[in-house]
């Protein structure tokens, strides 16, 4: 952030040698070390529980029973993943539901958001005030869970349908609408729109042909926000889903945490694995392996998408 | 007669206005329909808090009961517990979030290696992307009575007794804020860091001329410069002080009944009353209580901020 370059480093930094690149207002090497150490410790705290779960999922069940979860497995074992593989069809079905709802929901959400945000960004849109208030009001007042639930179950009958994982609550985020509007206002110059209008382009043509292609950064960002919201959602499942065929990955993890037997329902009723075998299932490590299976995609994809998030959060003020 | 003509003219001009903006209005249609269904219908649906819902008659034809549901709600000790828990936890979060996040942002801005700073920020931001279910698992790996890291690797080796974390409510007023900070502070830090980076460098150069220390610069330049964004974020949080983070209070304590005295908040209460007990009257009363008080709070806090500094007000 210091724009002054190191033209006279030794003069400003005092003790630093002539080769020092230290900027004028930079902290001393000692303080820098302390600050770095502080952040290293803090970062370790941030990822410690994640590493703990990874380690637990790769541990031998007996070692866990004896020593508890440790940061490096006392005895390595992949038995937990082996047991999970018996239920591979269930896990894959969960992935399928999660991927389907995430893709459909994010694409629809991005479209609805951009289509609502664009007119709001236009100074010449005569209903701008009304529609701005219409969405802003939803940010400061809400009906609460009960009427929201009754609207979707009693009027629209979405209970136990794939739509229940896509539509309620997640499809349109007012905060993202306002972010997108701000982006349009800042990037799309009115003169571009005017010249397109003079050339005879209609509003939809202008939107899809000019505005959207110019707005790929913000579309990527809100797309990521929606993707994450759908991928991480378990609340809609908790509220609307009783059908075992519609269980997404997050909800599966939730059910496994509450009762490991959830995965073994087939085994219990079937003849392939007897009660004795069930007793031998490494409960604790299977549970942790389930967490890894569910958390994996987000953590693996994180390095690639996180900077778009940072960019999106700083797109601009979102004053209503 | 004149009024009639005026009205006719107004209607005419309104119709023309709609016609002039028809394509832009068409674009707004999907979003408007969604907001009507997802947000406005539930707002009008709050009237069920004044009804005794009878499914056989349907919601619209169920009898009105006035404030009976509210009387029942506030007659229970739950009403006090959930209000207290929600308010105290959220108040704590509202106060500590900016303190920690601003400190971290200022420190992060001082880290001399750009790559290092970016790396730290990425790691700190990671927990924000994990779902509450995953956080519940991570918490369990730390707190499980028999196998959890804290009991087996910290307390017992140091000679303390293992603690049954999931059945002792007294520890949760400490655990929940820690989890909250761990999960959310990266997000706030990113926002504050952007604000800190955006401050014009000339201020610091001038301060340096006057021999201001780093501490002095942070107090006299950085904090005043980012005060508007701190106020806006705190204001938004105060407006939602009655809305608890459902995932944090439901998933992290693993919905353990023994912990309700310190983990039950309005949102979890409403959920359990509705879907576990099927008590529509009580849950809708609690929900409306939350919405109305929250709304009044937003308006009043905004009014206060407007009086102090119009620029910082939300609307």
Tell me what you see in this structure:
Chain A: The chain crosses the membrane at residues 33-58, 92-118, 130-150, 162-184, 204-229, 286-305. Chain A: It is found in: Cell membrane. The complex is a heterodimer of chains A (320) and B (315). Chain A is an all-alpha fold. Chain A has helices at 9-13, 29-57, 61-67, 79-86, 88-121, 128-140, 145-155, 174-187, 190-198, 203-214, 216-231, 235-240, 249-258, 265-269, 275-280, 283-313. Chain A has two domains: 27-78, no CATH class; 82-313, MetI-like fold (Orthogonal Bundle). In chain A, helix 2 crosses helix 16 (283-313) and helix 5 (88-121) packs across helix 8 (174-187). Chain A is globular, with a radius of gyration of 26 Å. Chain B has 14 helices and no strands. Chain B has helices spanning 2-20, 22-45, 68-75, 77-110, 114-125, 132-143, 149-155, 172-197, 201-209, 214-239, 246-250, 260-263, 266-276, 280-308. Chains A and B meet through helix 2, helix 3, helix 5, helix 6 and helix 7 of A and helix 2, helix 4, helix 5, helix 6 and helix 7 of B.
């Amino acid at each position: 952030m210091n724009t002054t370059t190191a033209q006279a480093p030794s003069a400003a930094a005092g003790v630093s040698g002539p080769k020092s690149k230290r900027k004028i207002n930079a902290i001393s090497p000692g303080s820098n070390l302390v600050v770095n150490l502080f952040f290293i410790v803090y970062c370790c705290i941030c990822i410690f529980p994640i590493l703990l779960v990874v380690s637990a999922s790769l541990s031998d069940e007996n070692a866990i029973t004896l020593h508890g979860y440790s940061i490096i497995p006392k005895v390595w074992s992949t038995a937990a993943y082996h047991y999970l593989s018996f239920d591979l069809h269930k896990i894959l079905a969960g992935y399928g539901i999660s991927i389907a709802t995430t893709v459909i929901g994010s694409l629809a959400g991005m479209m609805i958001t951009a289509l609502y945000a664009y007119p709001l960004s236009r100074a010449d849109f005569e209903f701008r005030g009304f529609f701005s208030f219409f969405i802003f009001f939803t940010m400061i007042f809400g009906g609460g869970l009960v009427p929201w639930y009754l609207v979707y179950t009693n009027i629209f009958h979405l209970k136990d349908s794939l739509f229940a994982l896509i539509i309620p609550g997640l499809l349109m985020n007012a905060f993202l609408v306002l972010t997108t509007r701000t982006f349009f206002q800042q990037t799309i110059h009115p003169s571009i729109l005017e010249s397109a209008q003079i050339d005879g382009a209609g509003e939809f043509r202008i939107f899809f042909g000019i505005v959207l292609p110019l707005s790929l950064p913000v579309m990527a960002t809100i797309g990521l926000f929606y993707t994450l919201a759908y991928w991480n959602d378990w609340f809609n499942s908790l509220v609307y889903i009783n059908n075992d065929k519609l269980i997404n990955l997050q909800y599966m993890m939730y059910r496994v945490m509450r009762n490991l037997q959830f995965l073994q329902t087939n085994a219990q009723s079937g003849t392939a694995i007897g009660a004795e075998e069930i007793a031998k299932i490494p409960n604790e490590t299977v549970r942790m392996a389930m967490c890894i299976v569910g958390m994996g995609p987000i953590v693996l994809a994180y390095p690639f998408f996180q900077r778009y998030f940072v960019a999106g959060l700083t797109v601009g003020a979102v004053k209503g | 007669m004149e009024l009639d003509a005026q009205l006719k003219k107004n209607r005419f001009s309104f119709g023309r206005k709609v016609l002039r903006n028809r394509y832009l209005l068409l674009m707004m249609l999907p979003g408007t329909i969604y907001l009507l269904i997802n947000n406005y219908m539930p707002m009008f649906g709050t009237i069920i808090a004044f009804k005794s819902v009878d499914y056989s008659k349907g919601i619209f034809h169920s009898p009105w009961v006035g404030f009976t549901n509210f009387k029942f709600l506030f007659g229970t000790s739950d009403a006090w517990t959930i209000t207290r828990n929600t308010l105290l936890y959220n108040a704590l979060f509202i106060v500590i979030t900016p303190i920690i996040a601003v400190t971290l942002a200022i420190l992060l801005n001082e880290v001399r290696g750009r790559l290092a700073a970016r790396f730290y920020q990425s790691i700190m931001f990671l927990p924000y992307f994990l779902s509450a279910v995953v956080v519940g698992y991570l918490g369990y790996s730390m707190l499980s009575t028999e196998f959890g890291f804290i009991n087996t690797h910290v307390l017992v080796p140091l000679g303390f007794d293992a603690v049954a974390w999931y059945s002792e409510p007294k520890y949760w007023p400490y655990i929940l804020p820690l989890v909250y900070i761990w999960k959310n502070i990266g997000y706030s830090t990113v926002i504050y860091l952007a604000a800190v980076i955006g401050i014009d460098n000339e201020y610091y150069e001038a301060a340096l001329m006057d021999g201001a220390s780093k501490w002095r610069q942070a107090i006299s330049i950085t904090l005043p410069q980012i005060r508007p964004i701190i106020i806006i974020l705190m204001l938004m949080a105060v407006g939602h002080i009655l809305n608890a983070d459902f995932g944090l209070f439901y998933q992290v304590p693993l919905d353990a009944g023994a912990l309700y005295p310190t983990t039950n908040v309005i949102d979890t209460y409403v959920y359990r009353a509705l879907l576990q007990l099927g008590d529509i009257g009580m849950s809708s009363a609690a929900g409306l209580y939350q919405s109305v008080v929250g709304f009044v709070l937003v308006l009043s806090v905004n009014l206060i901020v407007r009086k102090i500094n119009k620029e910082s007000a939300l609307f």
